[in-house]
Design brief:
The chain has 5 helices and 8 strands, in the order E-E-H-H-E-H-H-E-E-H-E-E-E. It has helices at 28-31, 35-50, 71-78, 81-86, 106-119; strands at 3-11, 23-24, 61-65, 89-97, 102-105, 142-146, 149-150, 154-159. Helix 2 packs across helix 5 (106-119).
């Protein structure tokens, strides 16, 4: 089965949250998503459910198809100063089986996401899932949405790239 190299930035405590069989499934309480944020994340989870990757009851895990030299810029875009000051983060390099991934355009997801944060509902024309049209030359990134993480997908754990 083909595997895809992905990167994700997670709180370091995630390394202690894998269950005895090596599975980590996020919880709504664990990620602290409420209100319109939860509405947007629940919509992404419903897309995973549509593909039979999850039951839709838990929030997704966000990962990215990126080159290592892109990680500092990506982490800088994704993590706020408040998050960085409040928590220790690590970079996980993953090798995920192709069928476990829901791909999307990061930029187009952000359009959908921020509109939901503003008005409380998801307006989806489906374009955010057209990851093959991602303009990598213009800075867009293929976002890989996962239902969970498996310990055996983790190839390496490293500090966040230098965000200076």
């Amino acid at each position: 089965m083909e595997r895809v190299r992905l990167f994700t930035f997670q709180r370091a405590l995630i390394l202690n949250l894998f269950d005895p069989v090596g599975l980590y499934t996020p919880t709504w309480n664990g990620i602290g998503a409420t209100g319109n944020l939860r509405t947007a994340y629940a919509y992404a989870a419903s897309q995973l459910e549509r593909l039979n990757l999850t039951d839709g009851a838990s929030p997704p895990v966000w990962a990215y198809e990126a080159r290592p030299e892109q990680l500092a810029d990506l982490a800088h875009m994704l993590l706020s100063e408040v998050e960085l000051q409040s928590n220790e983060y690590v970079t996980l390099e993953l090798s995920v089986p192709e069928p476990q991934i829901l791909r999307s355009s990061y930029d187009l997801w952000c359009d959908l996401f921020f509109e939901c944060l503003e008005n409380g509902e998801v307006v989806d024309d489906g374009t955010w899932l057209d990851w093959q049209q991602v303009g990598r030359d213009d800075g867009d990134t293929v976002q890989a949405i996962l239902a969970h993480l498996r310990r055996d997908w983790v190839g390496s754990v490293s500090p966040l790239p230098d965000l200076a």
